[in-house]
Amino acid sequence: MLVLVDTGGIGLGIVLTGAQAAADGVVPDYGKPETDFGVTVYPCTADVALGSVARRDVPGVVGPAMNPAEFGFSYLGTVSHEFFKPLSVTFDFTAMATYIAAGR
Predict the structure, then answer these.
(1) Closest residue by Cα to residue 100 from 55, 47, 56, 59
(2) Does the structure show a pLDDT above 90 at 62?
(3) Burial of 63 (0-12, 13-18, 19+ CB in 10 A)
(4) How far is the C-alpha of 11 from the C-alpha of 2, rounded, in Å?
(5) Higher-confidence position of 103 and 51
(6) What are phi and psi of 88, to 5 degrees?
(7) SS percent in the chain: helix, strand, coil, step 5
(8) How many helices (H) and strands (E) are present in the chain, helices listed first?
(9) What is the DSSP letter of 38?
Protein backbone atom coordinates (compact mmCIF):
# COMPACT_ATOMS: atom_id res chain seq x y z
CA MET A 1 0.00 0.00 0.00
CA LEU A 2 1.11 3.60 -0.47
CA VAL A 3 2.55 5.95 2.14
CA LEU A 4 3.29 9.64 1.94
CA VAL A 5 6.94 10.59 2.49
CA ASP A 6 7.81 13.78 4.38
CA THR A 7 11.50 13.88 5.23
CA GLY A 8 11.20 17.20 7.06
CA GLY A 9 8.90 16.41 9.99
CA ILE A 10 11.39 17.02 12.82
CA GLY A 11 10.48 14.94 15.88
CA LEU A 12 7.93 12.91 13.91
CA GLY A 13 8.40 9.56 12.28
CA ILE A 14 4.77 8.79 11.51
CA VAL A 15 1.64 10.93 11.10
CA LEU A 16 -1.74 9.23 11.00
CA THR A 17 -5.39 10.18 10.88
CA GLY A 18 -7.60 8.61 13.54
CA ALA A 19 -8.94 6.12 10.98
CA GLN A 20 -5.43 5.18 9.82
CA ALA A 21 -4.29 4.67 13.42
CA ALA A 22 -7.26 2.43 14.15
CA ALA A 23 -6.70 0.39 10.98
CA ASP A 24 -2.98 0.05 11.76
CA GLY A 25 -3.52 -0.87 15.42
CA VAL A 26 -1.75 2.28 16.67
CA VAL A 27 -3.12 3.62 19.97
CA PRO A 28 -2.64 7.36 20.52
CA ASP A 29 -2.14 8.78 24.02
CA TYR A 30 -5.33 10.84 24.31
CA GLY A 31 -4.22 11.98 27.78
CA LYS A 32 -1.39 14.10 26.32
CA PRO A 33 -2.82 16.36 23.63
CA GLU A 34 -0.38 18.58 21.73
CA THR A 35 -0.87 21.42 19.29
CA ASP A 36 0.88 21.25 15.91
CA PHE A 37 0.22 23.99 13.37
CA GLY A 38 -2.90 25.05 15.27
CA VAL A 39 -4.56 21.62 15.43
CA THR A 40 -4.78 19.16 18.30
CA VAL A 41 -2.83 15.93 17.82
CA TYR A 42 -2.05 13.03 20.13
CA PRO A 43 1.35 11.36 20.52
CA CYS A 44 1.87 7.75 19.57
CA THR A 45 4.58 5.26 18.75
CA ALA A 46 4.39 2.70 15.97
CA ASP A 47 6.39 -0.06 14.39
CA VAL A 48 6.99 1.00 10.78
CA ALA A 49 8.39 -0.93 7.83
CA LEU A 50 9.15 0.25 4.31
CA GLY A 51 10.26 -2.65 2.17
CA SER A 52 12.83 -4.64 4.10
CA VAL A 53 13.67 -1.76 6.50
CA ALA A 54 11.78 -1.91 9.78
CA ARG A 55 11.94 0.38 12.82
CA ARG A 56 10.28 -0.14 16.19
CA ASP A 57 8.71 2.48 18.45
CA VAL A 58 8.83 5.29 15.88
CA PRO A 59 7.46 8.50 17.46
CA GLY A 60 4.53 10.18 15.81
CA VAL A 61 1.14 11.79 16.15
CA VAL A 62 -2.46 11.00 15.38
CA GLY A 63 -4.71 13.85 14.35
CA PRO A 64 -6.61 15.59 11.59
CA ALA A 65 -4.10 15.10 8.75
CA MET A 66 -5.26 15.61 5.19
CA ASN A 67 -8.13 13.28 4.38
CA PRO A 68 -6.90 10.52 2.05
CA ALA A 69 -9.89 11.11 -0.23
CA GLU A 70 -8.54 14.61 -0.98
CA PHE A 71 -5.55 13.02 -2.70
CA GLY A 72 -7.72 10.78 -4.87
CA PHE A 73 -6.08 7.62 -3.52
CA SER A 74 -5.77 5.75 -0.23
CA TYR A 75 -2.57 5.67 1.80
CA LEU A 76 -1.49 4.11 5.09
CA GLY A 77 -0.08 7.28 6.67
CA THR A 78 2.83 9.69 6.41
CA VAL A 79 6.35 8.48 7.15
CA SER A 80 8.64 11.30 8.23
CA HIS A 81 12.05 12.44 9.49
CA GLU A 82 12.50 10.32 12.63
CA PHE A 83 11.90 7.12 10.67
CA PHE A 84 14.55 8.04 8.08
CA LYS A 85 17.05 9.69 10.46
CA PRO A 86 19.34 6.64 11.10
CA LEU A 87 19.03 5.35 7.52
CA SER A 88 20.57 6.04 4.14
CA VAL A 89 17.92 7.23 1.70
CA THR A 90 18.37 7.77 -2.04
CA PHE A 91 15.69 9.28 -4.24
CA ASP A 92 16.29 8.28 -7.86
CA PHE A 93 14.17 10.67 -9.88
CA THR A 94 15.23 9.15 -13.20
CA ALA A 95 14.01 5.67 -12.28
CA MET A 96 11.34 7.09 -9.93
CA ALA A 97 12.53 4.80 -7.15
CA THR A 98 13.47 5.23 -3.50
CA TYR A 99 16.25 3.18 -1.92
CA ILE A 100 16.42 2.81 1.87
CA ALA A 101 19.17 1.01 3.74
CA ALA A 102 20.42 0.74 7.30
CA GLY A 103 23.56 2.68 8.10
CA ARG A 104 25.41 5.19 5.98
Answers:
(1) 55
(2) yes
(3) buried
(4) 22
(5) 51
(6) -100, 125
(7) 15, 45, 40
(8) 2, 8
(9) T
According to DSSP, residue 77 is labeled -
What region, left, alpha or beta, does residue 100 occupy, with left being phi > 0 and alpha being psi -120 to 50 degrees? Answer: beta
The Cα 98–Cα 52 span in angstroms is: 12
What are the strands, taking DSSP E only, across 1-104? 4-6, 14-16, 34-36, 39-50, 53-62, 78-80, 87-92, 97-102
pLDDT at 30 over 70: yes
Confidence of residue 66 (pLDDT cuts 50, 70, 90): low
Q: Within 10 A of 7 (CB to CB), how many other CB atoms are there?
A: 12
8-26: burial string, b at 16+ Cβ within 10 Å, e else: ebeebbbbbbeebbeebeb
Q: Is the pLDDT of residue 74 over 90?
A: no
Name all domains of the chain by residue range, CATH numbers in brackets: 4-102 (2.40.70.10)
d(CA 81, CA 9): 5
